[in-house]
C-alpha cells in the first residue's frame, strides 16, 4: 500500500474496450484522473458495429447478461450508464436448432414451455427433460445471489459464507451441473435430434462446457435479464464512453501502446507507437493479455503460473475461445417469417467450403434486424451468420502482415485493411458463396435479395483488437487456462508479481463475456482503492431514465408438419 506522501492520483488505461472503459468509469468515480489509449478509432473493442451503405452490421451483442433488473449484473450496467433510456428486447426463444432432416427444436426461454415442447418431441426422454428444466428453474433462483459486484479475492470471510449459504440449498444441482459435460449429458437422450441439439443451445458446440453455463444462460433468459439493448453493440459501447467522459475521463483514439515504461520495478507510464511517452502513477492494461505480458512488458514479471499460461497453455487446443468467421448480408426485402436466431446443423458435404469449420459443422443464422430494427432501413433485413473457424487455417493463406500501421490524411492509423494475398480473398469468396447457397435453400429468394455484404475472419479480429489468435473472448472457462487464471487472481489480485503500480483488467483476467469484462473494471478499481487505503464508491448514472423491457413473442408450438419439414414458424414482433 503506498505511503500518504506518495499517494497515487493519475492512471493510464491501455485499451478502450468494455474492460478499459469500465475501469475508467470506476476510477473516475473514486477520484483518480485517468486517460485511456485505444488503437482503434472507436470505443468498445469486440463490442462493435460498422456501416455498409444504408445498413449497420452489428457484430457483438446477441444477448446481454444483466439487461433486466434484480441482479448484480444489472447494477453494473446501470453504474456504467450502459442501458439508461433504452429499450431491452427479450425474445421468447433463446435459440432454435434445426437438424439436418429439417426437424426443429425451439429452446424457449420459459422452462415450463420448453419442457412441454421437448416432451412433445420425445416422450421417451421425459425423465431427462424434466431434470434439465428443473435445473433451469433452480438457476433462475440463483441468479440474484450470484456475486458480480465484488471480487472473491476481496471478500471478507463472512461475505464468502453468506455467498455459500445462498448456494447451499441448491448444492446438488450446482455440483452435478459443473461436473457433467454437456456432451455427456446430451448423449443420454434417446431422441437423436435432442442428443445433438442440446450441444448447440449456446449457438455453437462448446465441447469443454459442463451443463452449468447452459443452465445459467437459459435461466437468465427466463428471468428476462439476457435481452438485447436498443442501439446494438456500438451503441452500448458509446453509452459507456459517454459516461466515462461525463465523469471527467480522457480517451485518445488511434493511439497504439508499444511499451509499458518501468523504473525500479514500478510502472510509470507508456510509450506509444509514435514515440511519445505519457506518465502516470498507475498503469492498467485492459488489452490482449498475451500482448501485455510478452510485448508491452517484454516477458518480464512473470511468475511460473503466468509464464506457463502465456507461453505454453495458451497454444494448447481448447484453452482460449476460438475465432469466428462472421458474414453479414443486407437484404432489400423483409423476412417476417424468419426466426431471430437459428443454429442449422450441417452435413460434411454442406460444410465443405466453410474454411476452418470444425468436425461438428453448423452455422448460426440471426435475422439481426429483428434484434435491432433501428440499424437498417424499413422493409429490409440484416442477416448475421457465424461459425467457429480455425485461425491457423486462415493464417496459412496470408502473404502479408496480420496488422500494420500507416498514415492516412496525415494521421497514423492502426486498424486499416492490409493486403493478405489472393488465396485469402479467394477463401473469403468461397465462404460467401457457400453461405449464400445454404441460406437460399432455407430462405427462398435470399440470394437475389442481397444488396450488401461483408465477411470477417479471425484475422479481421486480430487487425481490430490484436486479440491472440483472433480469440473472441480470451481464456475458456472450465479448462486449465481459465481455471488457473481465476485461482491466480483470487490469490494475488489483478497484478503481476514484482511490478508495482501495474494492474490487469478485461476479458483476459476473467472467463469471457461482456458482463465479465465490465465487472473486471469494477474489480480492478476495488483492488486499487484497497491498495491506496481509499473507500471504494460507485453510483448509478442518472443522466437518463431507467431502461424499459419488451418481450418478442413466438408461436405456442410449431405444428407437427412444420417441425417435420423444417418450415420456419411465423413470428410477430409486438411492442419492439
Main sheet specs = 7 strands, mixed
Helix content: 25-40%
Indicate the overall shape: globular
Average residue-wise pLDDT = 90
In CATH terms, the superfamily of the largest domain is FAD/NAD(P)-binding domain
**Distinct helical segment count:** 20
Text of the CATH class of the largest domain: Alpha Beta
Please, could you describe this protein's structure?
- There is one protein chain.
- The chain has 576 residues and is an alpha/beta fold.
- The protein has 3 domains: 10-57 and 68-85 and 232-318 and 472-532, FAD/NAD(P)-binding domain (3-Layer(bba) Sandwich); 92-226, no CATH class; 324-465, no CATH class.
- It has 20 helices and 22 strands.
- The strands form 6 sheets. Strands 7-6-15-16-17-14-20 form a 7-stranded mixed β-sheet. A 5-stranded parallel β-sheet has the order 9-2-1-13-21, with helices on one face.
- α1 packs parallel to α10, α1 (18-29) runs parallel beside α19 and α4 (126-142) crosses α9 (212-222).
- It is globular.
- The model is unreliable at 1-5 and 559-576 (pLDDT under 50).
- Residues 540-576 are annotated as: Disordered.
Offer a concise description of the structure:
With 576 residues, this protein is α/β, with parallel strands linked by helices. The chain has 20 helices and 22 strands.
